[in-house]
Amino acid sequence: MVRESGSSEAKPTVTRAAVTVVVPTLAADETLDACLDSLDRQTFRDFDVIVVDNSGRKAVGPREGVRVISNDSNVGFGAAFNQAFHASTATFLAVLNDDATAHPEWLESLLRAVEARPDVGMCASRVLLAGDGRLDSAGMLLGADGSSKQRGHMEAAEAYPRRQEVLLPSGSAAFYRREMLDEIGLFDESFFLYCEDTDLGLRARWAAWECLYVPDAMVEHRYSHSAGKASALKAYYVERNRLFLAVKNLPLPDLLSAPFYTMARYFWHVVYALQGRGKVADFQQAGNSGGQLPVIVLRAHLAMLARFPALWNARRRMKRRFTPKQFRRLIRRFSISPRQVAAL
After folding, report:
1. Are strands 66-70 and 164-165 parallel, antiparallel or unpaired?
2. What are the pLDDT digits (tens) for 294-321?
3. Domains in the chain, ordered, with CATH?
4. Distances 48 to 24, 224, 250 between C-alpha atoms, Å
5. What is the DSSP-derived secondary structure letter of residue 315?
6. Which residue of 106, 148, 150, 165 has the fewest CB atoms within a 10 Å radius of its CB?
């Protein structure tokens, strides 16, 4: 690890490490300490760490080997990563949630997977649920309306034992090639929270960059530690950003048919809620009223309409090497049904 003591503000010194690990934090609590401790134990050493403190309290103190960017308010996950990207010249950038801990060979396994594959622009880790042992994520899946879910969520840890192509990584523990980010652009900061990793991954896939799932790169994650598993805040951003993502990334035939998939997904949400399971049931069990959800959906659609011109312009500017037909074939390989989305 490149050692540099102390903290820094918005423009830290440029790093020369091979890999920069970016850790955005909002809570800045004991889980962040555990996360950074796990990075100290990495077998691969040519990396540095940038913590982006979104707490608004300058709550992250000096720590050996860690540089800190302190923001006056929460700028969001994507903007935090982008700040660290501009503060680094590393060939690769990894992002790790502050509520995740990396196994010692995490970085070594990711780097080994991409060294001989210049076509690979991003890697997905094997993300386990902390204290549970089951999978949180083995890459991501995509619904036909832009809904995205973790592949393998709640399945056995051994369910996906081999290195293989996946659609894109979960941003809780992802690995990106700088060359790819220079070409396609960074995280879309308008997303603020949730789905920005799916948006970036789909833009990378449009540009024909590959994504590998690396099962040896293991991370344990305390799921939704910062925003809650089923909060109203999360429900709003997930639905709004799902719409943002669809307008930007889905081929036109899929975009036009997306509302039919959405209605089917809403139907299954209701069915599962009546059975006391699924995401709507989780939302209600967390102390929220089910009557909030139609209002949240309406707000999300109004937000998308207000931003539609900017989203459409971003769609037109996107770097594309795939034809729409090739891209549709790709996303169908990693699709998820509306019933599965409602259940997970």
Report:
1. unpaired
2. 999 999 999 999 999 999 999 999 999 9
3. 19-221 (3.90.550.10), 232-343 (no CATH)
4. 14, 25, 36
5. H
6. 165
